[in-house]
Amino acid sequence: MMPRPGDAAVTHDLPLVEVDGLVKHFPVAGNVFRKPSGFVHAVDGVSFRIGRGESLGLVGESGCGKTTVGKLLVKLLEPTAGSISFCFADASGDEAPSEPVDAATLTGGRLRDFRRQVQLIFQDPYGSMNPRRTIYDTIAEPLAVQRIGNALDRVDRVAEILTLVGLTPASSFLFRYPHELSGGQRQRVAIARALVLEPSLVVADEPTSMLDVSSRTGIMSLMEQLARGLDVAYLYITHDLAVARYMCDRIAVMYMGKIVELAETEELLRHPLHPYTRALLSAVPVPDPEHRRDPPAISGEVAAPVDPPPRCRFYERCPQATSTCESSPHPPLEEKAPGRFAACYEV
Amino acid sequence: MTGLGLRYSTRQGEVRALRDVSFDLARGEALGLVGESGCGKTSLAKSLMRLLPDNARPAGGEVLLDGEGLLSLPEEEMRRVRWRRISLVFQAAMNSLDPVYRVGQQVLEAIEAHGVEETVASARARVARLFRLVGLDPRVMERYPHELSGGMRQRVVIAMALSCDPDIVIADEPTTALDVIVQDRILRELKAIQGQLGISIIYITHDMAVVAEVTDRVGVMYAGRLVELGETAAVFRSPLHPYTEALMSSFPSVSGEKRRLASLSGEPPDLADPPSGCAFHPRCAYATALCREQSPPRVGRGGQWAECWHPLDPAAVPVDPA
């Protein structure tokens, strides 16, 4: 069998989700009654897999398509092409997970089960909660939707999860409203809401980027502990490589709808292969006044991926581009060394 | 700036946004002000510019610009200082540009309003020079804000801040909304411009990495007070205040050894009802009864100082706040 991105993960061998050739195009509005004037290639042939309990980072600049991948994964959007296969965990946890099932084919109870097992945490802890509902209502709602337990059980369950996310004593938080909490506390509520259904995959879209330094570290270590304790896998979407370093086992770097590099975290940070990864890394400021950094070798700015030419998406800005890069299609994501994937002709 | 205070009256009562903040800024110097949201860093910038909302009330202190007191200046005179002596680069570039005017026109208006150029032609030439200075093609002058990327808009805002040859530029989170590659370019450009024009810059940010890279000195703010100030290299090498240490050790880095991130427990205090003694004591690992009861003294070591009863370097000795 062909090696696929992620096969090298040692500790997370059991597959949880496999994404194959995922594509999402958005039409660019033409005139009201006319055909779209073009398509934004938001996600353009993305493949990866996440193992059980593994944390995969999806890193890139704004507009690279990372949030769209997250939305596709939780089925907030339907893909234009490609597939997402998900291995259902047995509810009791005793039996082996199911064979991969195509998420597009799910209906009825199976779809509800998917919605239970795959959860989402948003970036904005202010906008993602109904201001008129108490913390209890917010966290218990998914339990009610999934018809888990009766009202009394739910109070216990919510109190338990609040304690788990560090909002203690739980009784003092149950009936408060979001505006009474700080940003960090709200993000803890969002995590509690995502975890109350004991999911096997959480898609976390920039969960700490709106928080202050001090609460950010708290949320990061909480998410890490919970992943280990509850065996939750993450797709951790962030623009911040330093945060990804602490949260992710592996990192996938996206550029204009494509994964350009994927590797184990420290490997990727120490020896980046793709010229874009190298540029991105060298642009990150370092919290050490004695450290000297060279400017990143990259020119221009990211263009909008509206009907991009078929060649390498990074061609226009790449310091290493050759005539091969100009005349060939976008390079495939290949395994250049064990566990190290890059989409580049020059690597 | 000496002993600056600021209060906001709110429905929750009197909020003491700034208390007894003092520092000096040398010509050509880059000073960083760091702290969490609500620590008073933006209030400080607005006090300097005297651009405060109606419910704000200065509570003592003085700001001297080349010996001239700014807080007592009549508004008319202050308008002469604003932009021509001290200018401001806002965080959200989109909001500080008017969407219906060409960006060049907006910079031109700033120049004309302050009468720094005699003729329209010379003012236009100045705008073109400013655009080149911040790395923009002068043709961009004819474009509207929505036609520009976030990085280009931020450059226009910087050009506007530089338009009247200020002595001091206050940059309030100038790159927070930008991607790292664009951030890197803008920070490098600001640094080069600072050297070229000999201006002083106050960087207001929550990002310790940005502070480490672009500032000469750094001030750490907590609950409306400046709790530590010193040369950036010295503060990073050996912080005196436990809060500074906590801020630094909770900041992740992509390079170097992967160290454990320390997390700071608790939340920043409510400024309507600040804790007694040292405002940081409820979250401080070193706090004692003394810290709960009495305001901490200022202690220092070679130009670096902190307000703390138990500084991290025992060699720090009491210093006179004046």
Short description:
The complex is a heterodimer of chains A (347) and B (322). Chain A has 347 residues and is α/β, with parallel strands linked by helices.
Tell me what you see in this structure:
The complex is a heterodimer of chains A (347) and B (322). In chain A, helix 3 crosses helix 4 (151-164) and helix 6 (183-195) runs parallel beside helix 7. The two termini of chain A are 23 Å apart. Chain A is built from eleven helices and twelve strands. Chain A has helices at residues 66-73, 108-117, 135-145, 151-164, 171-174, 183-195, 213-230, 241-247, 265-270, 275-282, 323-327, and strands spanning 15-28, 38-51, 55-59, 81-86, 101-102, 118-121, 201-205, 233-238, 250-255, 258-264, 334-337, 340-342. Chain A is α/β, with parallel strands linked by helices and 347 residues long. In chain A, strands 6-7-8-3-9-10-12-11 form an eight-stranded mixed beta sheet, with helices on both faces. In chain A, strands 2-1-4-5 form a four-stranded antiparallel beta sheet. Chain B is of the alpha/beta class and 322 residues long. Chain B has one domain (4-235): P-loop containing nucleotide triphosphate hydrolases (Rossmann fold), CATH 3.40.50. In chain B, strand 10 (217-222) and strand 11 form a beta hairpin. The interface between A and B is large, with 41 and 43 residues.
Write the layout of secondary structure elements.
The complex is a heterodimer of chains A (347) and B (322).
Chain A: E1 15-28, E2 38-51, E3 55-59, H1 66-73, E4 81-86, E5 101-102, H2 108-117, E6 118-121, H3 135-145, H4 151-164, H5 171-174, H6 183-195, E7 201-205, H7 213-230, E8 233-238, H8 241-247, E9 250-255, E10 258-264, H9 265-270, H10 275-282, H11 323-327, E11 334-337, E12 340-342
Parallel strand pairs in A: 3-8, 3-9, 6-7, 7-8
Antiparallel strand pairs in A: 1-2, 1-4, 4-5, 9-10, 10-12, 11-12
Chain B: E1 4-10, E2 13-21, E3 30-34, H1 41-49, E4 56-58, E5 64-65, E6 68-69, H2 75-81, E7 86-89, H3 93-96, H4 103-113, H5 120-133, H6 150-162, E8 168-172, H7 180-197, E9 200-205, H8 208-214, E10 217-222, E11 225-231, H9 232-237, H10 242-249, H11 289-293, E12 298-301, E13 304-307, E14 317-318
